[in-house]
Amino acid sequence: CITLGGYSATTEGTLWIDDVEMVEIDDADEYTLISGDSGTSSSSHWAGRTLIEGYTDIKWTLFAAMWIVFGLIYFLTYVENDELRTDDKKLTKLFWCVIGFGLVFRLVVGVAIYGFSYDVSCFMGWSQQAATDLFGMYQRRAEGAFLDYPPLYMYVLAPLGGLTALLQGAGLDSLASLVIKMPSILADLVTAIILFYFTRRKLNTKWAFFVALAYVTNPAVWINSTAWGQVDSFFAMLVVADLILLEKKQWCWSGVMFALMVLLKPHGIIFAPVIGMVLLMQGFAEKNWGALLKAVGCGIATCVVLLLPFALRMEGNKITWVFELYSGTISNYSYATLNGFNFWAMLNKNSASDASLFLGVPIHVWGMIAIGVAIGLTILFVVMGMRKGSTNKKSAIFISALVVMMTVFTFVHKMHERYLFPAVVLAFLAFVQSRDKGFLYLAFALTVHVFLNHYMILNYNLMYEYCHPAQGDKMVIFLGFVEVCLYIWTMVVSWRVLKKKAPKVPKSLRDLPPESDALGAAGKA
Question: Does pLDDT of 332 surpass 80?
Fold first, then answer.
């Protein structure tokens, strides 16, 4: 096709076409460009892809990630052996220094690496549209403009549009990309702060400092938000907030957070079975359905308030437009997996159609079966963890969320590399609540896998024009196998913890006071 602008066609203007010709190419390894009566050819550098001029080498991020992971594992030994000799006040001050370091580090990386150009360009274009006519954006979509994100992030992008336009106009594209990444960068730091105070309430300040440090410096986190420029950090922040509010029985606010999750990304619906089952179990246990009604009512009210201004600008389909938006977004990318290194990638199905067969059944059918399995596992784990006499009631919330996230990513079709991102922070939360080190080590293993999955795809697309791994890529197949092993690990640890009435406590945590005493010792911050 011939388009005005690149991927997503967010550029506006007039395009004049003259003398277009289509020719058959003898050599499939060469692309030929025909312009008027003369032709120019460009030799491919890899799989028919042309090397991008001014390619930003990001290999240094791989070495940075390796050193960070090794450093965190080394530091973990001090925390586990209680050799971190400092008081809580100093650790809290040091934590805020870590937050400052995390911000500075992200600012440097955000300028050095423009990001995944197609995503960053979309966000940049949407921010400028939102700055001029926020509530008319989905009417423009109905008229043919590209916009596949739900409305919540348009609210976030709207204040940034004027600044990104100004910086782009001045030729400062790197700074413009940094501005568009700032919501995710700040979300990283907010999530780390939430983790710090949550862990301090559940364990102690030393573990709180370590968990927050592990998230601030986590390579899987900053490569997504700062190098790539995606919004999964923002989504993960909402997931963490929602689950902690659920654990604290803040039903109304939990409903609000769930609504925000779904209004940010369609796959926020993944966590509906977890939240729904917890609310149902609460209703059965106390014979009081107020929690369910509060959560559902506040969630619906949040959706109405945020969607209504857009609906009023729509012509004709004022009610159905949002359902068409979600169904259109979900129906895109009809692949078994698109760069999500999971079970289907292990079977060499990356970029394969979801209509292709596995054991005689289309992959999209297997994907729907996997969704049913994920819901079934959620019901099983929540019921098992919240059964009468269990001391795992709160652990079941975080463990079930991790299980459903891992199940969906591993076996459901249409997965992207970024969809496993929330599993990292969910593993940390499961560790903090259950005190089982199996989840802590899983968090580190997921960190390595998620980082490598991001790094490989981002590096390809920084080097070549909209490039994906070739069919049969051995690294893709291997990392898919690794992810399946991580899924098995998740299931084994989750089952081991929840089947017992008391969680298995690692030796380094045995001397911690009960949760209520730990809360009093840490302070109700």
Answer: no
